[in-house]
Known about the structure:
Elements: H1 3-11, H2 21-29, H3 41-46, H4 49-63, H5 72-85, E1 98-102, H6 109-128, E2 141-145, H7 152-162, H8 173-186, E3 191-195, H9 205-220, E4 224-229, H10 251-255, E5 256-260, H11 269-285, H12 300-307, H13 311-327, H14 335-340, H15 345-353
Helix pairs in contact: 1-4, 2-6, 7-8, 12-13
The protein binds adenosine-5'-diphosphate and magnesium ion.
Amino acid sequence: MNTWAKWLRENEPQRFNMATKHGWDAFAQSAPRPSLERLTVEKLQTLSDDEREDYNEARMVWNANPPAVKTAQLNNAFDVIEQVMASNRRDGDRLRGSVVIDAAPALGKTTIATRYAREFHRRTLRRHGPSTREGHQRLPVAFVPLDAGITLKGLNQKILSFYGHPGATRASTSRLGALAVDCVRSCETQLIIIDDIHFIDFKHRNGRDVSNHLKGLANEMPVTFIYVGVRLTEKRFFDEGLIGEDASYAQTSRRSTRVPIAPFSISSDAGFRAWVQLLSTLESHLILLDAAPGMLVGHAKELDRRTQGCIGSLTNLLDRASYVAIRNGVERITPEVLAAATGDNAAETSARAG
Length: 354
Ligand SMILES: Nc1ncnc2c1ncn2[C@@H]1O[C@H](COP(=O)(O)OP(=O)(O)O)[C@@H](O)[C@H]1O
Ligand SMILES: [Mg+2]
């Protein structure tokens, strides 16, 4: 077996299911991939067909998985989360605040929440060990992604299935809630991420039930919640679907701290510098054999036009552009390669309109 086939076996894309404790722990404990050799164009020509195919495949895996970049958006969000987590040190009888990451799709919300939680998970296990004093598995973090039409029962089931609790499919709604509180307490969970919370319709009665239940859980569980979703202000997450004067009585708004995530914007000097910094970090990760420094930075304006400063659209476009550059042998990001790479639908539609 050639080196790259071996690398591929050991470093294939990981399909963690972060919605379970095993998948979450695997994600949290995963080490970065060992780096790949950057061959010269001449050396590439001397490889056998199989070797070249495997090397290119290995590079595709590598290129598609840049480490999370410490953008200003990420640093700022971490800072707010840390501030809110300061109250996580309160004794169990006192209420903790929650963090709400609220922004448009593909701006890095889930990335921010999961990277923060990953560090928290590792740090807590390092300090306190893998089991609790009572001998349960210690699970500092629970990750609970929601989907469309989520119900109260469904929410409790999702929490329980994170813990692999056998009762997840059977018990009644209120029993499920009690079991969820048990899991959280016995595994000493301190941080719960509820992702894609925009699937709850806060204006609808069912949605209000779910949101009241979440408030109840926050009262009963000694944890900090991070809620993540799209357009939560408009969806009346903070005022719990209440209108007019009633809205000011909504507890959620007093208990939660909103973290907006802005897209990059090159219209100011500082914004342009941040965009260039991001491109240069991503550029240094890519393995293309004819790459020269500034390969991406040189296209800063065009990349902004194609992606509207949205980090998710940028990584999509770069995955595709580096695929094109490898496939057609250009081995560099050029204007032609960028033109041949298709962006995601939102990015393409906006780029055409703009
Ligand atoms: N800090 C980051 N560094 C590198 N890539 C990022 C970062 N944040 C987001 N991305 C890219 O953007 C994509 C979308 O991010 P995600 O966190 O899923 O967005 P959201 O939850 O807001 O929809 C990710 O798959 C990743 O490719
Ligand atoms: Mg997300």
